[in-house]
Amino acid sequence: MGNIDQEIMDKVIKIAKKKKVNFPESYVHDIVEAYIRRELTDKELETLIVRVKKAYERSKVESGEAIGTVAAQSVGEPGTQMTMNTFHYAGVVELNVTLGLPRLIEIVDARKTISTPTMTIYFDEDHRFDEEFVKKTASEIAKITINDILDDFHVDYGQMNVEMVINQEKVKEKHLEFDDILLKIEKTFKKHIIDIDNNKITIAPKLDKRTKGIQIRDIRLLTDKIRDLQISGVKDVNRVIIRKDDQWVLHTEGSNLSAVLKKDGIDKERTTTNHIHEIYTVLGIEAARNAIIKEALHTLDEQGLSVDIRHIMLVADMMTADGTAKSIGRHGISGTKSSVLARAAFEETGKHLLHASIRGEVDELTGIIENIIIGQPIPVGTGSVGIMMKNK
Amino acid sequence: MNNTKIYMNGELIGTCENPEQFVTEMREKRRSGEISEEMNITYYDKTSEIYIFNDPGRARRPLIIVRNGLPSLEDTHIQKITDGKLKWDDLIVKGIVEYLDAEEEENSYIAMGIHDLNEDHTHLEIDPSTMLGICAGIIPFSNHNSSPRNTMEAGMTKQALGLYVSNYMHRTDTRAHLLHQPQTPMVKTRIIDATDYDKRPSGQNFVVAVMSFEGYNMEDALILNKSSLERGLARSSFFRSYETFERKYPGGQEDKFEVPGKGVRGYRSEKAYRHLDEDGIINPESYVEAGDVLIGKTSPPRFLEEIDEFGSANEKRRETSVTVRNGEKGVVDAVLLTETVEGSKLTKIRVRDTRQPEFGDKFASRHGQKGVVGSILSQEDVPFTENGVVPDLIVNPHAIPSRMSVGQVLEMVAGKAGCIKGERVDGTPFNTVIETEIKKSLTDNGFEPTGCESLYNGMTGERIEAEIFVGVAYYQKLHHMTTDKMYARSRGPVQVLTKQPTEGRAREGGLRFGEMERDCLIAHGAALALKERLLDESDKYEAIVCSECGMLSVHDKIRNKIYCPICGEVDSFPVEISYAFKLLLDELKSLCIFPKLMLEDKA
What does the pLDDT read at residue A211? Predict the structure, then answer.
């Protein structure tokens, strides 16, 4: 079958070349499909290609089209209708995720820290139906502190120590090893006196010679430190929710893509996060571009607003064009334009004029804003054409 | 130990160990007259706080005090009141009625009617509708309306034209509207009685038909009967007062009321002064239009003039007359001559203008149903009923269902019934149902109990197939009128600083082509249309730029020579820029930034 397809595909491409068009691959696929399904003759195929060519060229953006302004209006107008209500449940009932206008602003601002980072973790083919494995991984990823496995915990101000009893069942439940925990405790509290008696662990601060004995404050600080000691899990991931739809999936509160991707049995292709900057650092700029498109589109879609993907693609392209994820606004795209007048017209007028005058910047007046300011026709649409005379 | 904090007017003044007893004692003292009846006290047991208020500015309302489930207002009192032996103030002094503020209401349990009373109640409403204020109280059957409509009406009724004062002929309000022949509403409420609305009404009873008509009442527009308007329906007068006085300046000089002579600086035209009398003040009942002078006045020169060839200071007075406002016209209604506190001559002039309803004037019923006039039909074209009744107003049926202003429907039926019987109907909200009564009086007089009638097309005489709901509703003319708002400009004044058109109707300004409109033209790629809007139609300026230094050159008109103040007589070229940009360049120079323009040939 694939063989025949390739044959027809070559045929389609050949005819297309004859008709002087260069279709994208998806178009060629669609034409081949139609050719087989409708059992077209070669002549009909040619007509089809001519027709598709016409439609294809008609739908192309003409040169001089103000795509940026149109994209801004197409995203901005639905933005006015978005509700200000921040929190929504993103598929999972227990998990709250920022959505709506705040989320959209977060995306175009290219924030380094976002308000509700969350991950969706998929498993590879061997493990996606393995409940035991999924639960084990979940407990590995989720943050577990000493506090979660305690049976009893109390501070003895008379003895000036902290006493705790660890619940072995809880340890087992969370797929942990008791020895590992002990090791971790010993490692962290190296400078303290640790006394281990089966499940009962007593920790006391060492007597400091410089100060006069142990202060109550020291004990209090130690208490918090012990309780919050992370014994397992990935940094920044606070909570993991296990879901089963058609396969097992993990949803997390908090995000750490690089650490999670290192785990075994995880589908590294589908596992993702909503933290765009993290995707940029871990997977690179192209992944970040796709993440921006996906997240922005999803945010709009969730509000019942439909914006053509190409507008958002343009926004994402602008944000990622120079290899870093830039924000839209003062510190990003608008603030790094080449034209002095355009920058001064946006924000921080004084700053831009001052720096331009110090450096002796020249404004080539190639943009739209500059030309509106000086009162010349703008270089888009009907203003993008000129007349040249042959020097003869 | 319970130490309840006591606050008086927000300030902590002490504590109390037995709050409940303290509060009841205070209230009893207020009722007995020992403490001022303006004191209100509230006890919050959750936070253990007592609030006492006696400062001005609280909204308070009267309620009948209930003791042991029985109202203190008894039949004997009511009898005495009807006989005129007992007054309102007596009820307060006797501790029968008391005023509660919003805070103390939290501590009380108020019964809506005497039938709801039980042992726990502390107060009884005098009438449920007393919870409404003046504006909301004017709405009949407001309990049948959706709350946004009531809110809207409460706001709009303040914009209605009516008899705003009864001494209007002696007043000189800067702006005043007066409705001709105002009527008291056919359907009234008890609050209308209580507030003496009937003495200063602000609307008229219209015969209203609810039907669509040729599409001229789409989107809440109204169709008015021209003949009704010619008979004076919804006609109003607009008064504007102008005033000025002879100001005295230091140095003995002063303004003077006179017909300015031709030599005066800023002399208008002879035509503008034509109505002025010898004293420089206009005569009553003269018709004036925009720009006509009402009070001729001259002022002394602002600066001392240079000495002319004869060696005397050439005193040229300035023209500072008061003229009729732009876009207004009218008849001089009154001329008032008096003097200021300092003894200077003071003149006030009131100009009157009659306003017959026209397209775009705003009207509203008492149920938040507002609309503008969309068409004015001659009586012969308006549909008529079997009895020959021609409605004054046609509103669109789409205005009713989605807004749920059922009160309007009830008012129209009740108004109709009232008109037939020849007596006013009570439409107080939360009142007992008078529906059957209204229906009966309609059927008794041969009308449908629903208020529907057969109408005949005024243009063709054909019977309109559907039954049309016709009733009488009280409509208000609101003070948003076309003549005050209609405006257009092609050419006109510009600002001094930017050379851009002025802003606002009063200054004959342009309509702003804003940022979003600009974006729209950019999105369309209409580069030249945009340039026309922003440059040619605004602050186009031809700057002469020096080709050497990039600064603006100077055109010496006397020698007809162009030179650059820095480089001298070098090549300079004219460049078309916006004046705002030239101003920007100048401002940059004033900031010690040296902007240069580099010229090249246009592509």
Answer: 62
